[in-house]
TrEMBL record:
It comes from the Bacteria. This is Haloacid dehalogenase. InterPro entries: HAD-like_sf, HAD-SF_hydro_IIB, HAD_sf. PANTHER family: HAD SUPERFAMILY HYDROLASE-LIKE, TYPE 3 (PTHR10000:SF8), PHOSPHOSERINE PHOSPHATASE (PTHR10000). One of its GO terms (molecular function) is phosphatase activity. One of its GO terms (cellular component) is cytosol.
Amino acid sequence: MVMELAVFDLDGTLLNGKQQLSDYTRETLLLMQHNNIPYTLATGRTLHAAQECIEGAHFPLLHVYNNGVVIWCPETTRYTHHNSLNHKEIEVVLNAFAKQPISPFIFAVEPDGTHSVYMGELETENCKFYGDKFDARKGLAVKPLESLHEGVKITNVNALGDEQVIAQLCAEIRTAPELVVYNGGDMYTAGYHWMDLHHHSSSKGEAVQTLKASLGFDKVVCFGDSDNDFSMFQMADEAYATANALDELKAMATGVIGHHEEDGVARFLRQRYSL
């Protein structure tokens, strides 16, 4: 019998436009659980940002966060694998942001294993909104950027701003060979663009390959919508792009399924597994 693992991206794929799992999707995951069909997630979100979206849903297997930088075990609540950046490796990032009117959000693991986000002054209302959200998250300490120290392991850096500012930041940061940068329009707030960067040796594809081997699966079926899913689509045995996905990703896919706002993934799962 072939052991198959379904792997879901979150934003633009399993989540709807409200950054939530719809009732229909939650019911579908329950049906998969009851039928012993294994599944997990691989997202660009941090652990804390993802948990508030999937709260109450059952994801018992290893999770991939930060575009593959970390693999997290829900049973032990610890990371089993990570490719972090050190303070020296993000000097180019700090120098680039020093020339711009926005602050980076620097996510890090402290020497004692606790989680922090370091940030400077927040110039825009949208940045202040996200800053307040970080402050409200349990298990995530918000600290001033000037207190960033060499003892932390930096998982990723992200930011929000207008398109031109984000483009300038990305162009400068991409000169650093140890970094990989993703950027795009904010699907939840019109007029804003986002960027996210992490260590170049990390990717969703590499992390999902690690899951496949360590958990003993023969086959991976993945679902995604954006450029940070390219590596996962390349390694998967089957890959399905949502109707809202980038055209480049659709071209790589085994097939194109429904829109994320219309429970496209859940409807496909019910048909595939006769749920």
